[in-house]
Write a structure and sequence with these properties.
It is elongated and about 90 Å long. It contains 15 helices and 16 strands. By secondary structure, the chain is of the alpha+beta class. It has two domains: about 240 residues, 2-Layer Sandwich (BirA Bifunctional Protein, domain 2), CATH 3.30.930; about 80 residues, Anticodon-binding domain (Rossmann fold), CATH 3.40.50. α1 crosses α11. A hairpin with a 5-residue loop joins β3 and β4. Bound molecules: histidyl-adenosine monophosphate. Histidyl-adenosine monophosphate (HAM) binds next to β6, β10, β11 and α11.
Length: about 400
């Protein structure tokens, strides 16, 4: 018989890994709700157009990495590669633009056909937020503060630095693009094939290239900050001032451009050195034309998405599952009493495990295997006296506890 494997770039989550995932998404839930963000769940697939228009046809994500298929009705659909375009589409299709500003958070699976490696998968989980309808730089500051609070809650803030940049408004970007084109044209023959294509379609993407030949040329490319007009400069300064006010440390990285076309003004990434090449654990920025691109009114937005798988990798060693109590009958005569006690403990919210069969030795072995902290032994003279034997499995100490006191004791 053929033995099946998971599809390349996908994996099963269980044990420590799913605990770390849950820990991260729970942290997002808690922090986002303190900031007044409500949950949104958008479909896992959308019309391909939503992403193509929203994120830009020439981005790597749309042109190379999307899972696109025709459904049985002949519609072209795509598995979502990210959450922002879907949230913007949801705002338009639910007529929510009357109720701005809107604050959403989400957590769920995303799909990209990328080359899998540590921290990079074809199905991965993002947890993110989107703030819609706020034009002021204070919106950017709030979203970055939320990201910072979230990473603190996850408990890995010490491993991470914030890099930030401004891509300016449309006018600044157009001027910058012109400067980039005239710079890169000088090196056209040495650019990678992809980047030669990008030169005509979207020269900013060249700055993102991971090809060695492009990276060398990028070193001396013009910098965005020299092309920001006054309004864009003032906007960026206001964002940085807000971060200073809140004591959030950052590094301005003039080469940070991000891989998606919808960004305007602020872009940022939280980065760690601990995960090799996949060190960006959270990334986002402002997008002022996305909702309009998707057929809605002009509504600006700012948000971020964190890579839950990457945060979970950083955390995995640190999260320990809660240790249950093992209930162990002395022999099969006490099976019923042990069963009843186990259910009683559970009804009080105490995590309890009952080995289903075997003699006491075998059941004690199981108690160790599941890393139980304590065992309650049911039976013997103690039982006749109306008590259980409570054993500490770390140091072996034993004591008698009356039936009525066991829940309190545990
Ligand atoms: P992104 O930079 O494409 O932005 O992805 C955000 C984060 O998702 C990355 O920093 C990374 O941690 C994680 N990620 C991306 N691809 C993979 C992968 N193949 N495997 C594991 N983790 C991955 C966005 O998606 C934007 N929607 C963020 C945003 C929200 N901008 C504004 N609002």
């Amino acid at each position: 018989m053929k033995s099946y494997q998971p599809v390349r770039g996908t994996r099963d989550l269980f044990g420590d890994e799913i605990l770390a995932h849950r820990f991260v998404t729970d942290a997002m839930r808690q922090v986002a709700s303190v900031y007044g963000y409500g949950e949104i769940v958008t479909p896992v697939f959308e019309f391909t157009e939503v992403f193509a228009r929203g994120m830009g046809e020439v981005t790597d994500v749309v042109s190379k990495e999307m899972y696109v298929f025709n459904d049985r009705g002949g519609d072209s659909l795509a598995l979502r590669p990210e959450g922002t375009a879907g949230v913007a589409r949801a705002l338009v299709s639910n007529g929510m633009a009357q109720n701005l500003p809107l604050k959403f958070y989400y957590a769920g699976p995303m799909f990209r056909y990328e080359r899998p490696q540590k921290g990079r998968y074809r199905q991965f989980t993002q947890a993110g937020v989107e703030l819609l309808g706020v034009d002021s730089p204070n919106g950017d500051v709030e979203v970055i503060a939320l990201a910072d609070a979230f990473l603190r809650k996850v408990g890995i803030k010490g491993l991470i630095t914030l890099e930030i940049n401004s891509l300016g408004d449309m006018e600044s970007r157009e001027n910058y693009k012109k400067a980039l084109v005239s710079y890169f044209e000088k090196y056209e023959d040495s650019l990678s094939e992809d980047s030669r294509r990008r030169l005509r379609l979207n020269p900013l993407r060249i700055l993102d290239s991971k090809e060695e030949c492009d990276k060398k040329i990028n070193e001396n490319a013009p910098l965005m900050r020299d092309y920001l007009n006054d309004a864009s400069k003032a906007f960026f300064d206001a964002v940085l001032r807000g971060l200073d006010t809140l004591g959030i440390a950052y590094k301005v990285n003039s080469k940070l451009v991000r891989g998606l076309d919808y960004y305007r003004h602020t872009v940022f990434e939280f980065i760690t050195d601990e995960l090799g090449a996949q060190g960006t654990v959270l990334a986002g920025g402002r997008y002022d034309d996305l909702v309009h691109e998707l057929g809605g009114p002009k509504v600006s937005g700012i948000g971020f998405a964190s890579g839950v798988d990457r945060l979970a990798l950083l955390l995995k060693e640190r999260i320990k599952p809660a240790r249950p109590v093992a209930v162990v009958p002395l022999n099969s005569e006490f099976d019923d009493a042990a069963l009843k006690l186990t259910e009683e403990l559970r009804s009080k919210g105490i995590s309890a495990d009952l080995g289903f069969s075997g003699n006491m030795g075998k059941r004690m072995k199981r108690a160790n295997k599941i890393n139980a902290a304590k065992a309650v032994i049911v039976g013997g003279d103690e039982y006749a006296r109306g008590a259980y034997t409570l054993k500490n499995l770390d140091d072996g100490a034993q004591k008698e506890v009356l039936f009525a006191d066991i829940c309190k004791e545990l």
